Structures are given as structure tokens and as C-alpha cells.
Amino acid sequence: MLKNITFQRLSSWFFRKITRIKTRWFKNLFISQFAKIYKIEWQDCVRQRPEQFTNFNDFFTRELKPEARPLSDVAIISPADGKIAACGQLSNTEFIHAKGHHFTLEALIADPDLAEEFKNGQFATIYLSPRDYHRIHMPVTGQLQRTIHIPGKLYSVSLKTAKNIPTLFAENERHVSLFETEYGKVIVILVGAINVSSMETVWEGTITPPYASILKYSDYSHEEIILEKAAEMGRFNMGSTVIVITENNNLQLNETLKEYQPIKLGEPLLQKAD
Prior knowledge:
alpha+beta
């Protein structure tokens, strides 16, 4: 087990180093080959040539043209591009996961009292593949209340791995953000993964060690950090997963959502119940 953790950390450290190399021939070749392999949709990007990026990570966290992602007028939109790894309603505070596997919200967010407030709420888990846009945006306008950074493992979060490790998201490193919104409290969770050299939020900046090894609770309730719907809230430096959880209130998952369905930033996630 210790050997696996050491490998995960070393691999992530290595990727952090090579994705920040600024040598022009290297980063241009790295970006162009990656774009070719993963069929990057350059037409959606503000910058459209490898030469315009300072390093590979700058390309990986590239910005999109505002018009590239039209925003739905539903209550809660998708915060990212990716695929639906899982979605549904919590059973009390328990996730009913693929193939009958289970884990609890308490285990996921390391706060039993907060988990109680989300009993029978709705959730959606979005997996970001290497080819996806890697900035995370607000699913709804909200005021930041607090965050929890939970250290953990760095398993791959691919859909195949998620099937084989039932408690994957409750074991990997993750950053939990709690927002107060017009639809009640909303949790947005950034889940770390192997080769995700760091995560970022717009209010805290880059989240790297020593935070990565410490369970850290932060209170922002008096700072009036308000982010508008669709505003950038964070990003992954390499790929991972984002989870949105809402309270059990007058919201329901969009009826078209299903597991493994592609989804893009701004598309419908939850709507007001009829």
C-alpha cells in the first residue's frame, strides 16, 4: 500500500515538472502531439496554436471562447466538460454507486454534521478525460461558506477504475467547497487523481503540499466571496473529476441525464421540480 502511494506521488511530481517545461521545441511538440492524439477542438479555444502557450500545463488549462459553451437557463448547470460517471439521489447520506457499491457522504466530505444537511439530496459526478476542458465553473450563483481539503490517495479516476474501486472518490485526495445559493446549499467537490499535480480555486490559488497531506477546514462565511453562475471557480492541472451535490429540496436531475453520457459546461444538470 505504501509503495502504491509513493508511486502515485512520484508520478504526479514528475508530471508536474514536465508539464511546466518552457523550452519551446519541447512544449510545442508535446502540445501538438497531445492535441493530435486526443483530437482537441481548437476552434473552441481562445489560443489555437502550440506557440501561444508558455508550457503544456498552460495549454491543458486553456481558456475557451465565451460563445463556445452556451448556458442553459435551468437552476443548476454542468460545471465542466466531461462524462456523467454517476448521478441520482442519495439514500439518506449514502451514494448508490455502479454495480451496487456504496459509500457515504460523510466519508466523502469528512464532515458528518454537514452530510446530515444533504440527506436524500441529488448528486452528479462528472469525469474529465485528458481531452476535456479543465476549468471548473460555478453550477449556480453562490456565496462561499467554507472549504475542506481532505488528503488521500491518487488513484486514476477513469470510468474503468471507478467501476473496480467502489470507494474511489472517498479515498482520493479532494477539495470540498460549500456554497449558499438561492436553491439552498450546494457542494462542489474537486477530486484529485494520479498525475493531477495540483488543483486550484480562484479564491485560494494553487492547492499543493503541505495542504495535500493535511485535513484542512477553512471558514469563508465572513469574506463575502460570491461567484456568479458559470464564473470560473477552479481548475485541474491534469485531469480528474468534479462532483455536485444539492440538498433535498425542489430540484430534480435533468431527465435526459444517464451514466456515461457526454456533457459540456453550461448544459442542464438540475432543474426545478414540477
